[in-house]
Amino acid sequence: MEQKLKLNEFRQAYKVLQRGVPWLDHLLLGLLVWLETLLIDHRVSTEVDEAIKDYQTLHEEPLPDMVTPVYTETKSSTSDLLPEMRLQAPWRRE
If DSSP codes are grouped into helix, strand and coil, which group holds residue 72? Predict the structure, then answer.
């Protein structure tokens, strides 16, 4: 698997820190790739968290209740003893 640096800052750091010793340069490249991956993951998670917070502050009205079912009971037209019972999802209102 070939290791490549994605960010220009890390590419420049690798060029500056190279010593011309293949095994040392490869070890340095591995370390920089690992650090770059950690940095990218941190930046992405921070940006996503900020975007979620921004979205929640813009849309402060509560989300509709999509969990609690609607239970109704009406008199049956066919039987006087047994009522007609209906359990419905909250997003399917009639």
Answer: strand
